[in-house]
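Workshop exercise sheet. Pairs work together: one partner reads the sequence aloud, the other fills in the structure field after running the prediction. Swap roles for the next sheet.
Pair: D.N. / O.F.
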Amino acid sequence: MSARLFGLVAAWLETPAADGMSQSERLVLLLIAERARDTDRRMISFRADRRDDGTKITLTELLQARAGLTPRGLADTVQRLSRRGLEVRVPVGKDKNGTVMYARRGHATDYRLPDLPASVSVPERPARRGSHTF
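Structure field:
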């Protein structure tokens, strides 16, 4: 566990770069920082991360449980962070179309704490086809 990275994120969340971030976005960043190694900022799991039946819990399930999010809620939160330039998922490869994959059969999603920029902007949504702005 990295108290240094946790403190870094906590301080960054007080800067103007974090303005407009949702509580779930803030919490997910803090949870990743809390479990990240100082050397490579990758979130790690522990042997004690088990379900009641003894099977291993994934990092995604851990984030969902600790943040109180549904699978869809976590996916939406991670997507919003990504649109802000804060990609927390670790790529595992590309599919046949060249799209980056973050998980695949037999390999759950891994997470890492991204570099925290001095400013963050959310790109504007593209206008719908056929819609007019007056």
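Discussion prompt: The radius of gyration is 17 Å. What would you look at next?
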